[in-house]
Amino acid sequence: MIALIARRAAASLAILVLVTFLVFLVVYFSPGDPVAIMLGRDASGETADQIRRDLGLDRPFLVQYGAWLWGLLGGHFGTSITMHVLVLDILVPAYVNTFILALASLVIALTVGVLLGVLSGLRAGGWFDRLAAAISEGLAATPVFWLGIMLIWLVSKQLRWLPSSGMYNLRGSHSLADLFAHLVLPAFSAAVLAIAIIMRLTRASVIDALNADYARMFASAGMSTPRLLFTQIARNILAPIVSIGGLQFGTLFGGVIFVETVFAWPGLSAQLYNAITAHDIPVIQTGVLMIAATFIVINLIVDLALVWLNPRARA
């Protein structure tokens, strides 16, 4: 098990290094001049050249990449070109906010998706199965930004049950209750597609488990369906649920940009949008690297969890 963890960790580290190169490559060859954006059109050429030298932008590509990678290894992620503050001071709070939103969306998606999938699988072909399938199709086809706007109009504007934007009330105490109230609508909006995917996978897994020989043997011996579900089937459908859950968390983390925009959630999307507009290279590189590193770490955790859940793999 320790050797397996070491191999997976080494592979993840290699992928992360490759990601750093690709991120730097894309940003390096992207159009736009950060110095020109900083100084405006009226700046002299001498001033622009001096700033490029100070920022190291006049050096060759590999030299710039090597300096940036060496800084990452030393924990130095650079300074924002436009805001003149450390990149981590800008992105870490935004990262935490995005992580909270993605995690809440995953909890909603797993809870609703697994529940509907299990009930549909137990009643395959019945009216509830057909209704859940229709709900799943509707959720999968619903644009996230449109759903967010509709929820704001109905729940916030018409019913006045929940706040429509932000993370806390401006005059509030920043309590957990305040955070939860602001979190419900964006988290549900981001979770709709994941609910549909998880529900379909869970339904298929339950149907396959019910048709397996061991399930039929226990059913013929008189074991009730609820007991069969919780004592036998649950262990067999847990692995695919863990796998799809990890994949959906990575997708949610990188894909909540529309939700953060609609609900004015102070996450990574706003910071990256501003950085891309201003061609703020250190912020763009670090922000994209944070998202990629999150994907890699989540996949590593899921792989190890699947090995732990499978006794034959552990052996």
UniProtKB/TrEMBL annotation:
User: What is the recorded membrane topology of this protein?
Assistant: Multi-pass membrane protein
Keyword Lipid biosynthesis set for record: no
Tell me the superkingdom of the source. Bacteria
**UniProt keyword list:** Cell membrane, Membrane, Transmembrane, Transmembrane helix, Transport
InterPro entries, alphabetized: BPD_transp_1_N, MetI-like, MetI-like_sf
* Listed CDD domains: TM_PBP2
UniProt main location, coarse: membrane
Q: Tell me the PROSITE patterns matching this sequence.
A: ABC_TM1
| Record has Amino-acid biosynthesis as a keyword | no
What residue stretches are annotated with the ABC transmembrane type-1 domain? 95-302
- Bilayer-spanning residue ranges: 9-29, 67-92, 99-119, 131-155, 176-202, 237-263, 283-309
Subcellular localization, as worded in the UniProt entry: Cell membrane
Record family assignment: Belongs to the binding-protein-dependent transport system permease family.
PANTHER family with a match to the protein in the record: DIPEPTIDE TRANSPORT SYSTEM PERMEASE PROTEIN DPPB-RELATED
Task: Tell me the protein's name.
Answer: ABC transporter permease
